[in-house]
Structure formats: structure tokens, C-alpha cells
Amino acid sequence: MLTQAIAARSVTSFGAEVRAGLLKAGQKELPSKYLYDEVGSALFEVISVLPEYGLTRADEQLLRQHAERIVGRLPLPVLVAELGSGTGKKTRWILEALSSRQRTTYYPIDISRTALAQSEKELGQIEFVSIVGYERPYLDGLLAAAANRRDGEHVLVLFLGSTIGNFDRPAGEEFLGEVRRILFPGDALLLGTDLVKPVMQVIAAYDDPIGVTAAFNLNLLARINRELGANFDLERFRHEVRWNEAERRVEMHLRSTCAQTVRIPRASCTVSFSKDETIWTESSRKYFPDEVVGMATRRGFRCDAQWIDAEWPFAQNLLIAV
Ligand code: AVI
Questions:
Q1: pLDDT per residue over 263-281, tens digit each?
Q2: Which residue owns the Cα nearest ligand 1 atom 1?
């Protein structure tokens, strides 16, 4: 009964956001968080192993190579809270390094129950680690996890994979401030950020030759068809990737290849597209290393250390709350 009520509410907010984004004057938009239904999350897993998309590999490699050093710089004991746990694969390195020093409780926080179940499956066997998942939005989950701290215990927040890059630039910085407000001085945030790199390399990463990212993007329209009863014809939209130099972000769009009208019954709207009009579905910002330090400093952290991958410019930033 309760589950049904939650499901009904989430269709309503999905419908409301789709309606607002597609009826907006000027550039049409859809929130990127809706790319991740079950199909979208599975496609993202494939993206993360594509040769052209080095982000996930760099993120994991840095954690694998430096986990001992990262953990060695933390004030112990700590509990670990991860924002957007995903599959939990790369978190293993940090938890293994920590568990040789202390018994560790790990709180994965994700709105997807499937993601929480996956991370439990991936990490549940590590000795001296207990897992308590929170199926909640990031900040709600972090508040709940941090409330479990014992006297003298610190909090380590993991925000990996450059998910912060999918926020607007000011919103990303504001989010760091909100995380900081939940933490105490001496607590830590390990933040993964994808760095600026040659434009050709970025474009290839988001417009791969076998079309996995195109399918990931188009699945958003397929999802609107499935969940909101719409009649998007996927043959009439093309995946498009743009580099926005001024904002240093890669943008994903869906371009309408002809003039057309689409009905979305469960969002109570009909949307017209002119030929070549686009829906902006995602931004992925790329950072300079110093920019991350500046952002963190303005929001009440000091950057204790930064590790940068030699092959794919990506940084793990260890930020300590001051
Ligand atoms: C999850 N996020 C950091 C990915 C990114 O690179 O911005 C999502 C993604 N979109 C297309 N490819 C990957």
C-alpha cells in the first residue's frame, strides 16, 4: 500500500517536471536525473567500460592506487557515507583500506533501491564492514547517516564519479556548502571531479561510435513513453553532443529531425517541436584542479590532497571541513 502511494507520487513529479521542461519558453530541457531508470542505469554501466569514456576507469584507478594514502590522512575512527552509491564497485578499495584499521559502518545513500541492493551485494562480504543503506535523496540520507556518529567519531563522505559535474556550476558549489553544514570540523569529503581535457577527447566520450551514449540519451524519451503514455517516435530524434567552451561543459541534446507534435497524456500536455529544435538533457562540467580547491575553500573546506590520473585527467580531492 505504502509502496503504491510512493510510486503514484513519483509519476506525478516526473510528469510535472517533464511538462515544465518541455513547455518552457526557449530551450526545452529535461532533468538529467531521469536518465537513470533501470534501462538507463544499465546503459550507464556499459558507458563506463567504453574505451572512449575514461572517467569511471580513472576514478576507480585513483581509488585503487591511493586508498591506503587517502585513509592514512583521515582522522580515525570514521563512519563512511556515500552519496549516490551506484554499484559500489570502486568503494571497495576505500572500505578494504579502512577495515584493516577499524570496524567500519558504511552508509550508501541512493534513491534507487536497485543500486543499494547492488552495493550491498558487491561490498557485503568485506570483513569488519557493516552496511546500512538509505533509500533517500543525498542530503536527507547524509543527515541520517551522520546522526549515527558516536562520540569522537568522524564522518567521511564519498561523492565520486564527478556526479557534481552534472549540477549547474553554482548549484554544485552550493551543494558543497550544504554538505559542509551537515559535517563537523575535521570530517572529510572525498570528491571526484573530471578535469578539462582536449575537446575531441570529450566529444568522443559522450558520442561513442557504437551508440551506447545515444541509446542512454534516447532512453529518456522511451521512458516518457513507458511511464507517461507519450508517443515519442525515437526515429525522429537524434543524439547530439556539444562542447560549451564558456561554461567548460559538455551538453547532451536530443534533436528533432522534423517538425512534429508529441502527446504526453500522463503529463497532461502536447508538445510541438520545430525541425532541428533540441531538448537539453544533461550537462557534464569539466574542472581545472585549482578551481575545485577554490570552490571547496569558499564552502568551508580545506583541500588536504589531490590525486590526478596520468592518462585521463580526473582528480580525487580530499577535502577536510574547517
Ligand atoms: C554520471 N555522470 C558523471 C556521467 C557524466 O560523465 O557526466 C553521466 C554520463 N552521461 C553521458 N555519459 C556519461
A1: 999 999 999 999 999 999 9
A2: 163
